[in-house]
Amino acid sequence: MAMTMAEKILAKASGNKESQAGEIIMANIDVAMTHDLTGPLSVESFEKIGVDKVWDPDKIVIVFDHQVPADSIDAANNHMIMRKFVEEQGIKNFYDVREGVCHQVLPEKGHVVPGEVVVGTDSHTCTHGALGAFATGIGSTDMAMVFATGKLWFKVPETIKFDITGKLQDNVFAKDVVLNIIGNIGADGATYKACEFGGETTRNMSISDRMVLCNMAIEMGGKTGLVEPDQKTINYLKGRSTKSYEIIKTDNHAPSLETIHINVNELEPQIACPHNVDNVKPVSEVEGTPIDQVFLGSCTNGRLSDLRTAAKIIKGKEVSKNIRMLVIPASREVYTKAMDEGLLRTFVDSGALVCNPCCGPCLGGHIGLVGPGEVSLSTSNRNFKGRQGSPDAEVYLSSAAVAAASAIKGKITDPRVI
Hints:
This protein is α/β, with parallel strands linked by helices. It contains 15 helices and 18 strands. It has a 5-stranded parallel β-sheet, sandwiched between helices.
């Protein structure tokens, strides 16, 4: 029977020969991730179950990234709870405050490979589908059951395949592609579906760019984001992971597969306007909007390629005196490579503030919050009311190129003309 990637991976994880969209299956979990913000509730729920030991400490990954270093007594207590759990359970895959954002750290450290089922207590766990894994966010109480049993039930999703073709213009990137898709199909356009990204344009993208696409699958309601593994995937995993894996691909005539064709030849930079991610407009329609803060970072666009793009635009120029710019690399690996390449010096010389690898203002619970009436331009993935601070503030979303150009001008700016 013809099947999609999502169906094949879940069939394998459940021990079934075939799994059809709509079926309820019990899947064995390959990787279970939690972090400092959602982890304590998972631990509390796990302890209520009455099981002494987790099912497999080697398959659990814990990352501190949301509030690091601790910015409140509550955050410090959360860190203490998780450190105690790590020690009691013998969890070796523990990344304390120094490593960075979970969705960057897991691929870097080789925890994710094609064909696996990856769950995390963070909605943007779908990022890891860029490596050909079925990766999805779950609740903290569901994670407690995974800790105890190593299993979780799923309804097998249908799949929307975005067949992306065409050549992107200079200073137009994967972020613009996915924002455009979300703007067209809406925040609920792919509810509980696997969002698979394919086509010539996707195949030409780096793993980092594919991660951008998959990261934002949840913003159109998707259960997961997926890209078929290829030689780029294999090359990325070399030197990172020692796990064995299976390359799984979609059968194009699978019954549950819907294909949407997209050509990006004429695509211009895209902006998600307040207060919804699907409120997307081309930059030409919002150009000139005054801003107070630029945030370059997050699990969406805090990678080395993003820092390179922004630094190329900013080099030799100054951040507008009317704004502040925060640059937050997604991981320690990204931070050190950016330091070695001189990118961080470029940002500091321009007047930007470079911070430690973490989630930063993305979640509205840590550094760099915006106040009432202020406007943030962010390379992150959500712009809901109150997302980055005050509910009376506004958040626009963009690529790293738009963020850099706008930081110089102090207003939303098309990077193609700067």
